[in-house]
Amino acid sequence: xxxxxxxxxxxxxxxxxxxxxxxxxxxxxxxxxxxxxxxxxxxxxxxxxxxxxxxxxxxxxxxxxxxxxxxxxxxxxxxxxxxxxxxxxxxxxxxxxxxxxxxxxxxxxxxxxxxxxxxxxxxxxxxxxxxxxxxxxxxxxxxxxxxxxxxxxxx
Length: 155
Hints:
The protein is largely without helices or strands. It is built from one helix and two strands. The chain has a two-stranded antiparallel ribbon. The longest helix has 10 residues, at 8-17. It is globular. It starts with 7 loop residues before the first helix and ends in a 91-residue tail after the last strand. Mean pLDDT is 80; it is low at 49-72.
């Protein structure tokens, strides 16, 4: 059961207090530069319902141009628990997912270009339509239940 939609100041407050973010709705929290290292985000929703057309490829050093409401953060999720979390359509460009637990997480159509998934657990994760060019999957774990984009699993 999803909790109420959390705004940015509530999110930063909870992060500062080291509180769990299980099952929370962060779709409106705008987590720009928020640090989720080792945070429990089981079942949390960080997805975006839409990315307006015509904004492809405008990459900036920390994600994408601020001209649209995709979460645009240099994501730090190292060691975080993201099991069953929804990260659909996030811009996780150069995101840090080292050692993150992403079992059964949804990363549909996410931009994970150059993201670091080393030692991450991706069993059951859905990355269909995601961009994973340049991403690092060294020592990451996945299985037959992991769904990869059409380009297939990392080689």
